[in-house]
Amino acid sequence: MIELAAVRKSFGRGPRGVVLDALDLFVARGEFVAVRGESGIGKSTLLNLIAGLDRPDAGRVVVDGVDLTGLDDDALTRLRRERIGFVFQAFHVLPYLTVAQNVGLPLALLGRPDADAAARVHAMLAAVGLADRAPALPRELSGGEVQRVAIARALVHRPAVVLADEPTGNLDPASGAQVIALLREAVKDAGATAVLVTHSSTAAAAADRVLVLTSAGFEAA
């Protein structure tokens, strides 16, 4: 589902600007992979490359059979909307929209019919235990509940790939454990492939496979 081959990415000139160099990665369809590593080693850059938000300086990035390095910006935007779901540390829910409206955003961007979208939003909110919170605003929710909204939004359009960047970083340990368990369950139920970037050993333990990103590439944990 995800393949990186000899990927290089740098920001700025000189050796110090190199973030990833000759990086290889293969993630099978339906696999849940956790990536750990020191701060600044390039974990978020890795997710940005998989999502087509950053372009590699060299190498190849393939997602769901599509070589991203050959796509223009419009095609990359379509691919992200249709095939990728995101869960971020900072939640990134819109404070002036209700829970249901936040979850329905990916479907609105895809132009899904209102009736179909409403049914899918209701199903996803039920799946994350927030069916009764649909009319609430984000400020009325706990941090764990807001992150569950983010998970529902990431999966509502049935993406092939889910990318999660430190999704428990702003949560207490108990809420973080609940969110990771819910994320894993939701991803597996959807048949999606997931890459989780995390500093948490507890969060990483929920994955099928754990990789440690170093300056020399990936190592098995």
What's a concise summary of this model?
This protein is α/β, with parallel strands linked by helices and 221 residues long. It has helices at 43-50, 73-83, 99-109, 114-127, 143-155, 173-190, 201-204; strands at residues 2-10, 18-27, 32-36, 58-63, 66-67, 84-88, 161-165, 193-197, 209-214, 217-220.
Q: Can you tell me about this structure?
A:
By secondary structure, this protein is of the alpha/beta class. It has helices at 43-50, 73-83, 99-109, 114-127, 143-155, 173-190, 201-204; strands at 2-10, 18-27, 32-36, 58-63, 66-67, 84-88, 161-165, 193-197, 209-214, 217-220. Helix 3 packs across helix 4 (114-127), helix 4 (114-127) crosses helix 5 (143-155) and helix 5 (143-155) runs parallel beside helix 6. The longest helix is centred in the C-terminal third of the chain and has 18 residues, at 173-190.
